[in-house]
Design brief:
By secondary structure, this protein is α/β, with parallel strands linked by helices. The chain has a single domain, classed as NAD(P)-binding Rossmann-like Domain (Rossmann fold). It is built from eight helices and seven strands, in the order E-H-E-H-E-H-E-H-E-H-E-H-H-H-E. It has a seven-stranded parallel β-sheet, with helices on both faces. Helix 3 packs parallel to helix 4. Pfam families: adh_short_C2.
């Protein structure tokens, strides 16, 4: 892999993760994706056939330490090093303290927070080899302000704190750590997590979110991929510990003027 950067993306077979994978392959980089769903891997290859052979799609579970260890051994043998780790895998179940069940709460913590912790910890030896690696956590504006899911908001707020903690922890190894916090981005997320069952309801939800964003538009996966490309680049070599909303200004909206009833953020 001489002169070729190696990037590992969790959840790289759909939505934001897939857009990131496509963006990084455009830089002649080797991209590895880990995803629990063979179905999503097949869907990704159908949607983006140009990525066949450019992205190494691997089935695995980011919340399972044994699965991640197997992934590390595979990468070490085949690629030797990781220049960038993008923790993009995420799940969401809507609910507050009274309506969210404990299983869904735990699942969100396992995937959204424990997953990035285990991935970074287990793959650290390969990140150190890069002598200038980057870890990027795909968080959410729901981690900066309460959203429609107590579990999702808490897991993403925890992810932002993990980012901040790792800045000093990994800085001595010249590893930078940053968070990107999207607003609503049009992906399969809401369908895949059974939050929306039909296109009409999805379009209504997107329109409701659009008017709450000061720029009057919601995000596309490429918007997040563009920020990832910058943060892993040499142009961002002195940026670590940033919590970056990429959300059309929605973090600054006036809550007295904006309706909230049908918001599902990310």
């Amino acid at each position: 892999m001489e002169n070729k950067k190696v990037y590992l993306i969790t959840g790289g077979s759909s939505g934001i993760g897939l857009a990131i994978a496509e963006a990084l392959t455009a830089n002649n980089s080797q991209v590895i994706s880990i995803s629990r769903s063979e179905e999503k891997i097949n869907r990704a290859l159908n949607e983006k056939p140009q990525l066949k052979g450019k992205v190494d799609f691997i089935p695995g579970d980011v919340s399972n330490e044994e699965s991640i260890t197997q992934l590390r051994n595979y990468i070490e043998k085949k690629y030797e090093v990781i220049h960038g780790l993008i923790n993009s895998a995420g799940v969401i179940s809507v609910g507050n303290l009274q309506t969210l069940n404990s299983d869904d709460w735990q699942k969100m913590l396992d995937v959204n927070l424990t997953g990035p912790f285990l991935m970074t910890k287990t793959l650290l030896p390969l990140l150190k080899k890069a002598n200038g690696a980057s870890v990027i956590n795909i968080s959410s504006i729901a981690g900066l302000r309460p959203g429609t899911s107590i579990g999702y908001s808490v897991s993403k707020a925890g992810l932002d704190m993990l980012t901040r903690f790792l800045v000093a922890d990994l800085g001595p190894y010249n590893i930078r750590v940053n968070s990107i916090n999207p607003g609503l981005v049009k992906t399969h997320l809401h369908f895949d997590n059974d939050l929306i069952s039909n296109q009409q309801d999805y379009d209504k939800m997107v329109e409701g979110a659009r008017v709450r964003h000061p720029l009057k538009k919601v995000g596309e996966p490429q918007d997040i991929a563009n920020m990832v490309k910058f943060l892993v680049s040499d142009e961002a070599s002195w940026i670590s510990g940033a919590i970056v909303p990429v959300a059309g200004g929605v973090t600054e909206e006036n809550s007295f003027l904006m309706p909230k009833e049908d918001a599902i953020l990310k």
